[in-house]
Amino acid sequence: MRDHFFSQLRPYWYIAAEARELGTKPLTRTILGERLVLFRDGEGRPAALIDRCAHRNMALSRGRVSRGAIECPYHGWRYRGDGRCVAIPSSSSSVPPEEIALRCYPTAQSDGFVWVYMALNPHTSPPHFPHLGEAGWTSFTMRTHFSAGAFACLENFLDCPHTVYVHRGWFRSPHTQAARAEIARGDDWVEARFSEERDAKSVVSRLLFPSGRKMIHTDRFLMPATSRVDYVFGPDRHFIITSQCTPVSEHETEVYTVITFRFGRIGPFVRLFFEPLSRRIIRQDVEILRLQTEQLKRFGGEHFTFIESDLIGPDIRRLWRQALGSQDNQRKTNHPSETRNVVLRF
Fold it and tell me: Which of 81, 112, 240, 330 could connect to 41 by a Cys-Cys bridge, CB 3.0–4.6 Å?
């Protein structure tokens, strides 16, 4: 399924960069194994082309933006945002032939990010990060490079048991508890809603989670590569961690995480310690997934064993296969909600 992912899961929006990164100079990004050049046109709108000049295959990202077009550093050929070549300095013709054009990709700027649609003619807009920029909410963004595939990242972000060992003491502490998980499924999403979850007795819970309040914890996966984790303690205390995974290659993923929380008037002050704490925790995930990737490369393939407590990973694979149109998933099947009791160590 790995090769198919990069060739077939294209009709979706992926984050290519933070909007502030794309200024007057071009950027290069790789999404789904394809190298792109990003730049702003004469109107300041983002554009994305394949990073290869039609003339001698030079990387356009090594050139410059001139008069709203990307200029090749080798012979000065210029391309506008729709991929059309608009200038060939060495040619006697003032108008380049129409057939000289590069593949372009639909782009959009939303929520402070530049998004690229990796197919033609999107019928949707880029997704929005929940409550970002709303009054009463505080947010910060983290961009993290993982030496791991998108599936490994997504499953990790939505997996409770690993937090006991990878984030021992920081996020959860080891003790067994029976947690009821209600699993709901849709055509392009899956959700695990936990109840009867006790205080984790960790650094995060002591600093941020109010004692004596019931917690509603929800983990969600949304196609093609987004995870969302909610911790709700009532209308005045809510934490949301949303990660959009942009697949770079089979074993590389760029993850854009937006953490948004409601903490009353002191929210901006809470961010002063919450942000570095979050970065410390995500670095632990970076390291454990790097080690996992080494094993996948060493032994080849993905020899996984799924058990009852692997709540969302199997559904991520199902939804990907469904999108790929494999023979046993030609039609979207109905997967009703279910409630099951699982014993998780967190």
Answer: 81
Residue 290: closest CA among 146, 160, 145: 146
Residues 263, 270 contacting (CB under 8 angstroms): yes
Q: What is the pLDDT of residues 197-245, one digit of tens each?
A: 665 566 566 666 767 678 788 999 999 999 999 998 888 889 999 999 9
Task: Return d(Cα 324, Cα 40) in angstroms, integer.
Answer: 33
Mean pLDDT of the 336-345 span? 60
Q: Are 253 and 271 in contact (CB under 8 A)?
A: no
Selection from 333, 337, 313 nearest residue 149 by Cα:
313
Q: 93 in the Ramachandran plot: left (φ > 0), alpha (ψ -120 to 50) or beta?
A: beta
Look at residues 177, 156, 157, 154 and name the one whose alpha carbon lies nearest to residue 346.
177
Only one residue has tokens 């991929």, namely 83
* Count of beta carbons in the 10 Å neighbourhood of residue 56: 10
CA distance 29 to 107: 13
> What's the Rg (C-alpha) of the chain?
22
Strands of 113-117's sheet in order across: 13-18, 113-117, 107-110
